[in-house]
Amino acid sequence: QDEEKWDFILVSDIHQMGSVKEIKRKKFLDELSKKGFTIKKIEDKKLFYGVRAPKHFFRKYQWLLRNPDSRLQDLNAQQDVPVTTRIRLVNFILHNTVTPDLEKLHDLMKKNVFEAAFPLHEKEEAREFLNVKWARWRDIFCQQPIEKIRCYFGEKVALYFAWLGWYTYLLGIAAAAGLVVFVAGFSIFNSSQVSKEICEANDTIMCPLCDQKCPFWLLADTCMYARITHMIDNEGTVLFAMFMAIWATVFLELWKRQRAKVVTNWELYGWDEDEEELAMELINNLQHEPRRYRHSYWRSTIVLLLVLLMIVVLIGIAHALVIYRVVATALFSQSDSEFFREQANLVAVITGAVLHYITIVVMTKINRRVALFLCDLEKPRTFSQRENNFTIKIFIFQFLTNFSSLIYIAFFLGRINGRPGNYVRIAGKWRLEECHPSGCITDLFIQMAIIMMLKQTFSNVVEYLVPWLAHKIRKRQKHSKKKNLVLGEEEEVEDPCKKQWLSNYQLNEVNIFSLFDEFLEMVIQYSFTTIFVAAFPLAPLLAFFNNLFEIRLDAIKMMRLRRRMVPRKANDIGIWLQVLEAIGILAVIGNGLVIAITSDFIPVQVYKYTYSPCMTENSTTVDCLTGYINHSLSIFHIKDFELDTNLAEDIVDLVKNGTTVYRDYRNADDYSYTVQFWHVFAARLAFLILFEASTRAGGEAGANGAMHVALCVKLIAAWYVPDVPQSVKNHLLDEKHNNLRKELRWVTPQKVL
């Protein structure tokens, strides 16, 4: 039975005899034969080649990478090689076998000599267990069999699911806290003094929201939105934001402990990736010389400039979304539909959020291509180094794609648009949009809710349906060909391997970044869950339910819809841990800025403890926030509107004294900032410093923006100038290589058979 187990399958089109492709294929297969590979050919609509490596490859691997404390163990001791190790080693040899034309398998696949290369989903005990106990929707609340996942997919995949399970488990705590805060917000839905004053402001006339025939409007018109805003924007949200900043840190520290336990049980805590790669290179070719570490300042400069250029492009796309919202608000304000006229701002926000989601989908594909191109320019030494470089670049690009519009809404919307009579305009025509009348945090809440809902519903449906439909179509095509056999024609007796090879070939293709895509999806979700959670307390709850389905969705894809991944050994989640720690820092900064700048929490507190009746009149019978709304509004004289402003015709009837109001802290005579503005500004800055200091242990957070900029510059400089000289790295590499070569020279094929 073992003789019919095949390590890898190579698939090729049936090429014409004597053609260039057929000759190249034969040369590659001849090289495998010289190395002792057993090759079996099966012909169907394609050519299938099953390859099985000789046993001495695996004995050498076990000998070279045995436990260092057991150097005297018997070389001839028979010990089963895990299937994951067989596949990983064979995959390495296949991709590093060189033909007489100096071509590798990767080059031959580019030239369509081979179409595919993949390991088989075998009928192993681990696979049967995973299909029954893991890759099913009904097991959505069950614990994952991490050890079985490791036995079938290798350590890297097992660590991904261990991390995702741990993240989801602790996310349940954050989701419960967020739900409590959100539900508690309902208790002040009708009792908030601020929203009460807005709902009763039937004689407070606000400035028009556009320049062309937009009517003056009553502040009381925004009553419902005000209640919703203050349901989100309250003291509980501040505490929840601090909780989430601490949660993000605790989650990562607990994961490090959990990971240490897991990899220690696997005896991989001190595993050396370089040593394993050197061992496989020597097993493949004893004369192989290791690829040297190299660092080019010229190449690094080019890559850095191109990354900055891409960042500028992504910021430009964010600006385009801003322009869309500005123009859309103006157009909707002049619409024939009464609904669009009255809800112009809200419709622009919603359509802008949908457009932002479409931008994310499109730019994800472009960002991937750009990041791969930049990695090729860097010429990393190993696949692991290439993966790390790619991870950093694609995360930066994806972060800006996903969050640039949110950053604008959170920190710039309504703060750079000027004031009535002196608005900031795009191309001198369209004035920049203002926050929703009920507050800027409402716009951020709407934007986050729409993007998260679309990403966690539509994107997940597509993620599952596309491979499922592709698999079903391939199976149907296969069955239809069987039915088309001519009556009376006897079908050949099929090789027992043919059915298995064909069924694996019909599964969806996997690539080296298949697992990377899953990690990236979860890390971006983690960013949404932590960075702007102050504006959307339900984010952890949505993420929690999404992850429950995501675990089973990924399991079903890997077990039934995709070809088997090549197992990779690992003892951690790699560069993703540093990315998650960076997100934790951004979460502290982001939530602090949302509360200090976007939210009305600080202005409300300044009024309550400085200007309220409780402070000025020592009154204890009234609510301390009585009068806050009038205090936060400024007077504007209609005669000071810009000349090209076309006001509605009913202006005289509505505005009796020639003045109206708008949200800001400005003097009525010269529109300069009032003392209250500077009090609020100082309080915002003080809160930001205290928030960061209280949520990051040991005062790690910067006290101001300059320190955060300095941190970014420091990280770029650390990347640009390696901390260990290349000569030292190469010296250590040579030592490992020479030690392994000495070990291997004592091993002959006869000893290991």
TrEMBL record:
InterPro entries: Anoct_dimer, Anoctamin, Anoctamin_TM. It is found in: Cell membrane; Membrane. Keywords: Cell membrane, Glycoprotein, Membrane, Transmembrane, Transmembrane helix. Coiled coil: none annotated. Pfam families: Anoct_dimer, Anoctamin. It is a multi-pass membrane protein. The keyword Membrane applies. It comes from the Eukaryota. The chain crosses the membrane at residues 157-186, 237-255, 301-324, 344-363, 390-413, 523-549, 570-597. GO terms for cellular component: plasma membrane. Residues 83-146 form the Anoctamin dimerisation domain. GO terms for molecular function: chloride channel activity; protein dimerization activity. Residues 149-732 form the Anoctamin transmembrane domain. PANTHER family: ANOCTAMIN, ANOCTAMIN-9. Belongs to the anoctamin family. This is Anoctamin. It comes from Odontophorus gujanensis.
